[in-house]
Amino acid sequence: MSDFKKILKNNFWLENPVIVQILGICSTLAVTNNLRNTLIMTIGVTLVTALSNFTISAMRNLIPRKVRMITQVLVISFYVIMVDIVLRAYVPDVSKALGPYVGLIITNCIIMGRAEAFAQGNRPLISFWDGFTAGLGYMFVLVVVAFFRELLGFGTVLGIQVLPASFPKWTIMVMPPSAFFVLASFIWIAREMQIKKDISKTSQPSGGEKK
Amino acid sequence: MKFDRESKVYTVVFTFITSFIFLVVLSGLNVLTAQQVKRNQELFTIRAVLNAMGIQYASDEDAINTFNSKVKVETKDSYKVFSSEVNGDMIYAILFSGSGLWGNISGVLAVNSDVSKVVGIDFISQSETPGLGGRIEENWFKEQFRNESIVDGKVVVSTTKVPDSKDDGQVDAITGATLTSKSIEKIIATYIPILKSLLGVN
Amino acid sequence: MMYPNINPLVLFFASIFTSNILLTNFLGMCSFISISKDLKSSNGLGIAVTLVMTITTALNWILERYVITPMELGYLRYIIYIIVIAAVVQVLEMIIDRVSPNLYMVLGIFLPLITVNCAILGVALFMQLRNYSFIQSVLFGLGSGIGWWLAIVLLAAIRKKTENAPVPAPLKGVGITLITIGIMAMAFIGFAGMINVQ
Question: I need a labelling partner for C144 at 20 to 30 A (CA). Which of A8, A27, A139, A196 fits?
């Protein structure tokens, strides 16, 4: 059981795919000026990562080496298309707003990365968990980015006005460049926290009480 | 089970079977949802027409009912003209399509009966850059056109800040998306003469 | 079928400058950030991306027009596109290896990276969504490729300088790179006034 916990901790925080490796932001960063779209998009990514990890792991002893990559791509595309069809039918507004970005989940490096690094050599259930937590870690970062972009850019959260109308809206937050700035600030803070923790950990045995 | 995983035959059979299973599931799902997708498409148009005309609706169901009961559709010169009476005034709307910076922008343009005012505008599809040209779908941008006067057959989308007046025929453009904003101006200028001739107004 | 009435040259220049696929659509970020550490590799990858993007956009356009649309296979579009991209990359790798071993030394290692470069699939999807004609698609693909190339080379050059700059430790590496990209993105949007061909 502790394996599951360790994976959760690693994927969500210590080795968060976005904070540490900046993987997979291509498909979602463009829609982070709207929290609702980001939420739905990242839920899609999480589901696809978890399910394709599960499937690839379940098939891992059957996949011929020569077509390994293409099989992985096929499995991932399969789930992405499912997500796309479901969105198109049941949440058409979101599907319209996300446009081609849903399809781009296929090339999200996190999914391929988890399939290659984890699902290939582990059992289905734990692979599912690995993909799911990696997706959660990804969702966490992008949702925070989207929250601040929408809040400062429109004064709203999930479309509900929260800041007073007198608040001057930061147009730059709606525009693409701000995604980089907000993400960079987030990484700055997250790394600061991680570094501090590392220092306090290493200094503990020596009895030092440093921050 | 003993397979030679690296043999050619196995590779081909494996690839074939896997692809086949995936295709069957996907095409099944596609067929199952086709009806719903088509309905959504119609709904987009219906909602855009109502939004442009400034007719309120509570839900998707309500939108369809309102549309069916209040809006009349006729085809004139191969254009679909929607008309409705709101607060005693006749409002006419037309579907438009024109090019933006990246691709076609389509939507609905509604005007009053003597084509002196834009009643409203709404977009059905566009593929402009999210956060830049894509902001034409934001309410503040569309609401600028609400009851804006048409001056010299057009509504100017100005890149410099314009006063909040409904009589000057000017609205604000989107920061960083000049070309998209200007495209909207061009599209409106193209469709106003069409509307005038369809409605028989000079 | 109605193609948008847009001058292909406008698409070409807009996709390089004002709406750079990387800086406004965030496509191809993964390899962008990891490779831009080194100027030479950035240049190699840039060329490879431009080449593959142009070829796959053209091929996917033909497939879209003559296979996907007539057979109503729209829901399989993603799979078809990605397979085309993977196949083109493989074939290109073989051709370059045979024809010019020198070029292979430069590009070879980058080619496999390209299959999962979202910018390539992105351009193909945009091309379909916006209903471009063949010429428009090819120039859009070429322009986006060149835009990507330009952005990565510029970033690599800037990163060489920021490497030695006194950046706060947690911001080092990825953090400062993202801020650099953000400033570049703002600068590129500034090109908007320059290109007014319409």
Answer: A139
Low-confidence ranges of chain B (pLDDT < 50): none
For residue A87, CA distances in Å to A40, A91, A173 come to 9, 5, 26
Alpha helices in chain B (DSSP H): 8-53, 60-70, 139-143, 178-199
Cβ-proximal residues to A152 (8 Å cutoff; 6+ apart), any chain: A169, A170, A173
> Which residues in chain A have Cβ-Cβ distances shorter than 8 Å to C171?
184, 187-188, 191
Distance CA B136, CA B129 (A): 10
| Secondary structure of residue B158 in the 3-state scheme | strand
Q: How many angstroms separate the most distant Cα atoms in chain C?
A: 59
CA separation for the pair A74, B15 (Å, rounded): 10
Residues of A with CB under 8 A from a CB of B: 30-31, 33, 59, 62-67, 70-71, 74-75, 78, 81-82, 85-86, 88-90, 92, 96, 99, 171, 174-176
Which comes out higher in pLDDT, residue A139 or C174?
A: A139
Radius of gyration of chain B (CA): 23
* Cα-based distances in Å from C61 to A77, B7, B114, C14, C78: 20, 35, 45, 20, 13
Residues in contact with A66: Cβ distance below 8 Å, sequence separation at least 6, in sequence order: B6, B11
For residue B65, give every residue at least 6 positions away whose Cβ sits within 8 Å of its Cβ, in sequence order, or none. none
- Chain-centre distance for alpha carbon A124: 21
The closest alpha carbon to B123, from B84, B72, B197, B174, belongs to B174
DSSP-assigned letter for residue B132: T
Question: Closest by alpha carbon to B130, among C131, C180, C74, A149?
Answer: A149
Query: Do A90 and B36 make contact, defined as CB atoms within 8 angstroms?
Result: yes
Instruction: Report the alpha-carbon distance of residue A179 to residue B7 in Å, rounded.
Output: 48
Q: Which residues of B172-181 are buried (b: 16+ CB within 10 A; e: fewer)?
A: bbbbbbbbbb
SS3 label, residue B80: strand
Q: Which of C140, C128, C104 is nearest to C8 (CA)?
A: C140
User: Is pLDDT above 90 for A50?
Assistant: yes
Q: How confident is the model at residue C64 (pLDDT cuts 50, 70, 90)?
A: very high
Which pLDDT tens digit goes with each residue over A73-100?
A: 889 999 999 999 999 898 888 888 888 8
Provide CB contacts within 8 A for B20, sequence distance 6+.
none
Specify the range with the lowest mean pLDDT, choosing from A174-183, B5-14, C120-129: B5-14
CB contact under 8 A, A74 and B43: no
Of the listed ranges A45-59, B57-71, C71-85, C101-115, the least confidently predicted one is C101-115
Residues A136-161 pLDDT 10s: 999 999 999 999 999 998 888 888 88
DSSP 8-state assignment for residue B147: T
Cβ A91 vs Cβ A40: under 8 Å: yes
